[in-house]
Amino acid sequence: MICSPALRAGASVANHAGEVSLKDRVAPLQPFGTVRNISKLSLLLYGRLFTCLLVYLYTYTMFITLEGPEGSGKTSHVPYLVEYLREKGYIVFPTREPGGTSIGEQIREVIHDLKNVEMHPRTETLLYQAARAQIVEQVIKPRLKAGEVVISDRYYDSTIAYQGYGHQQDLEQVRTLVKYATGGLVPDLTVLLDVDIEEGLGRKKKDNEWNRLDAYTVEFHHRVRAGYLEMVNQEPNRWVIVDAGQKWDAVQEELRMVSLGRLKTK
Which domains does the chain have, with CATH numbers? Predict the structure, then answer.
């Protein structure tokens, strides 16, 4: 059959089903279009893969926690550490435990209220886990997934130190509760701000920040500190000890060096 110039130009061809364009007949046989279009598609796909690789390589997500006995100065250091890391170009989100969410802040008030002297250690332990489960799912995990650095004033190590070692409860049971509440989320870096117990409690009294946990016996607080030091021995790669008995500026400088150093080597 000899095609007319009109047919070669894509004129309509009549058949029993009606008028069908030659272009319409040919197009289904070329799902990716011409070779030129295929090249454009390949470049687009490679470009997206390259972008994803860059995001993966240069996303400095990290979970940093600050721990320590009462009066170690964690809360006063967090804002300045956050500001320093932001100046270095990191996206940093600060939070605290218990708290950090509306639900967590309400639980915090109950736990710390001096009127609640009848609170049993198991009740105290469970309340902490309730607040922790909420902040992990609502705040910490989403922030880490978004590629941010999260810095928390206390995390689950506080429960092991205070409710475990301090109250002398079964450590394995406490760890099981902690794992359930956190979904197994472990910090990348934990800094222990270590301070003498009497000195730390003296700071809290001086600053009028006394709460129900501060009012526990001195022996309780000594057990808490001993528990922290034991945890450092168990996981030396995660923990770094900073002497919080130093002048404030010296402590802040060490915190900056430790945090930035770990971020650069991640």
Answer: 14-54 (no CATH), 60-265 (3.40.50.300)
